[in-house]
Amino acid sequence: MIELININKTYNGKVKAADNLTLTVPSGQIFGFLGPNGAGKTTAIKIITGILKADSGSVKVNGIDIGQKPLEVKKQIGFVPDTPNMFLRLKGIEYLGFMADMYEVAADQRKPRIEDLASRFGMADVLDDKILSYSHGMRQKIVLMGALIHEPSVWILDEPMTGLDPRSSFILKEMMREQVNEGKTVFFSTHVLDVAEKICDRVAIIDKGSILFTGTLAEMKEHFKKNESLENMFLELTESE
Amino acid sequence: MNRKILSLVRVMLRNSTGLGIKDGKRSTQIFLIVMLALTVPFMLIGIVALFSSLIGAFMQIGQAGLVLKLGIGINSAIIFIFGIFYVMSSFYFSSDVEYLLPLPLKPWEIVSAKLIVVIIYEFIVTGVLYLPLLFTYGIRLGMGPLYYVYGLIVFVLLPIVPLALASFLVMLIMRFTNLKRHKDFLKVLAGMLGLFVGLGINMLLQNVSTDLSPEALLEMLESGSNSLVNVIPDIFPAAGWASQALVYSSSLKGLLNLILFVGVTLGAYGLITAFGQVIYLKGAVGLSEAGSSRRNKAIGQVVEKSRSRSALLSYCLVEIRLLVRTPIYFLNCVVMNFLWPLFLLIPLLTSGDQAMAFDEITRVISNPENAGIVLAAAFAMAVFMGASNGISSSAMSREGENIYVKKYLPVSYIVQLNAKLLSAMLIGFAAILVLVLLCIILFKMPLFLGLLMLITSPLALLFVSLTGLMIDLVNPNFTWDNEQKAVKQNINVFFNVIIGMIMAPLVIVPTIIIKWTLASTLAILCIGFLVLDILMYSILATRGVKIFSSI
Q1: What is the predicted pLDDT for the residue at B184?
Q2: Looking at the complex, does the CB of residue B311 fall below 8 Å from at least one CB of chain A?
Q3: Minimal Cα–Cα distance from A148 to chain B, Å?
Q4: What pLDDT, on a 0 to 100 scale, did the predictor assign at position B271?
Q5: Could you tell me the residue range of the domain that residue A184 belongs to?
Q6: Phi-psi domain of B94 (left: phi exceeds 0; alpha: psi -120 through 50; beta: other)
Q7: Domain tally for chain A?
Q8: Nearest to residue B229, comparing CAs of B248, B255, B206, B210?
Q9: Residue A18's domain is classified under what CATH number?
Q10: Cβ contacts (< 8 Å) between B291 and chain A: which residues?
């Protein structure tokens, strides 16, 4: 479970990227974070993962406050950032080993987990190559594998579907479903309504740093009909692809 | 000039963050400006003093022009060596190449714009070396206004010929070798080539004086009036005309030389852009591909190799892997680190009587009375080498835009900083090990002294690694589009070199003056640096961690 309580964040004293943002992401459901470009999705994610500090407000992951026990919180999370271009001069296997060491994966567990993830994503043949030689989609897959290697109880994914081939995005969706069935949390951002519609149990819509709506997809559609500003948002989200 | 080229140049310059002073917090900006204000004048005063005394000495025999000629020649050679790096990374390996290739630009326009940007970068080198020389010479010899006018023209045009040569070489290599796919290897190769050319020039210069027979030299000296300027061979093409234009600026000879220099320079510019038009694209296309083996190893075999380590060790290992595998880092941080012992040997190898020089050094090093001084010298070397390899002073900046990754990892900031320190110290220590082995093998240094050096040097390495890391934490440069900017155009590296240059003499000079024994040298160095290290580390563990967490 993720809880954001009255989060505020202003860049350069001008741009308000989080405006009294309050949001609860329950476990056991795939939760979509929807909003147009620049709405504040990535800022909120950065605050949850500990990359950014909020100006005020608090963040709790599984009941632990990130301000008080940042490392405890970070260990709960598996995070997939939106750009996968990192550690390019490491080999795939070295990157996974590094992530396993950082997240303190037990020695006897790392081998079966790497093998399992590699075969699921079809990466077994390239693990011994440098990430530099990977395509965009492969880089995304290796980052995804690195984020899942410690079997986190909370998944946070920033625009995970862009760049994945249909097969991989199908596998990812399947894995998300498995994850929530075990009572864990999946939280991902997207600016494409279509993606959210296909995967999510529940969505939140953010614009200009504050939450406009939280609920199930059916509720959202109902809402769109009544509320004009939300309808414009809906148009923007559907047009954006 | 073509409008497209101008706007390309403008975009490229704006994209590069320069020295990283512009962005960042106000306090950091002030810190930087104060640091610059403190260090640059000293450096300039040193350079001016050196030139002034050289010119003074040569003035007495009427050969002051020689200093100007050598200075301009060396300046050109340095531009050429740096140029190989700059041109290679800017023409072929900079990330903007991928965006430029699809634009409707002619190859020569891209080459022109990139060349101009590199020329502008080289003004820094020229500004530090050539300008002080120009003014020192002008003032000491009371040159007229025409001299300064010529001087300014030379300043603007001087980088062009060496850079055209460097570009020619680089474009040729990139076009006709099939190494493109192995671009990492290629970069290292080119870098090594540059370094060896540099070393070669160094040796050549030291031999210049011995090439002329004493009689001829004496005759030449007696005739005065800058006659040597005409005899000493050009260190670099076209540089000779530039210096003669300045030396003879008051006569027609100066003007003729200037015209020659300007003509050749513009010709070189024209030739290299024409050459680029023909050859550049073929080398640049397809560079973003990287080679991969795709050998079909069984996954079990691959996974088997992955061992579980502590966060500190694993992090440190990744730091070292990236340093060794990223060509620019490898050349600037790792190779440079091991070159210092070599640099020290060169004067020995090129001096007239090598056997005697070796014997002399052996005598000094193996004499027990000098043990204290020898130990202090090695310690000072560790201070200087550790400070100048730039590993810790670019440790934050090298993260670049991916710094955010280090913020979501569940590893405390102090462990991350420790891993960065450890990587810098390990590579530094390897170089000390080489130095000690060389001393033992070549100069019969007593073994126990070598052992003492190895035991004490980590204290020195830790100190300069701490200062470097702290500086790079205060003023990191995360926005760069090629790695060069993280290490070579990173002012923090320069600051730490200055710290090394200040600390090293502080270690060695008192030992020589007071003639401490080995035991007291050992005690003073160890206690002194232990205190310094604890002090610096506590700053890192408090302020440093705070800065890291608020990045």
Answers
A1: 66
A2: yes
A3: 13
A4: 92
A5: 2-82+153-239
A6: beta
A7: 1
A8: B248
A9: 3.40.50.300
A10: 133
Nearest CA in chain B to A116: B299
DSSP-assigned beta bridge partners for residue A9: A18
User: Could you tell me if residue A91 is inside a domain?
Assistant: no
The residue ranges of chain A whose pLDDT is under 70 are 228-241
**Largest separation between any pair of C-alpha atoms in chain B:** 80
pLDDT computed for residue A59 by the predictor? 94
Min Cα distance A75 → chain B (Å) is: 5
- DSSP bridge partners of A5: A58
Spans in chain B with pLDDT lower than 70: 1, 15-29, 31-32, 176-187, 189-191, 193-237, 286-297, 343-355
Say if A148 falls within a structural domain: no
Query: How much is the pLDDT for B442?
Result: 81
pLDDT tens-digit profile of B43-90? Answer: 778 778 878 888 887 777 777 788 888 888 888 877 887 787 778 778
Question: What length does chain B have?
Answer: 551
**Option in B296, B322, B409 nearest A102 (CB):** B409
**Domain residue extents for chain B:** 19-284, 311-550
CA atoms of B434 and B76, how far apart (whole Å): 32
**Residue B101 CB neighbours (<10 A):** 16
Task: Establish if A55 touches chain B: CB-CB under 8 angstroms.
Answer: no
pLDDT of residue A70: 92
Query: B410 vs A75: CB contact, 8 Å cut-off?
Result: yes
Query: Residue B457: what residue type?
Result: S
Of A79, A86, A130, the CB nearest to B402: A86
Contacts of B311 in chain A (CB under 8 A): 101-102, 104
Q: Of B390, B383, B388, which Cα lies nearest the Cα of B423?
A: B390
Greatest pairwise CA separation for chain A in angstroms? 56
Q: How close, in Å, is residue B191 to chain A by CA atoms? A: 19
- Does the residue A117 lie in any domain? no
Read off φ and ψ for residue A82, nearest 5 degrees. -80, -20
Q: What is the DSSP letter of B411?
A: S
The alpha-carbon gap from A233 to the nearest alpha carbon of chain B, in Å, equals: 30
pLDDT > 90: percent of chain B:
26
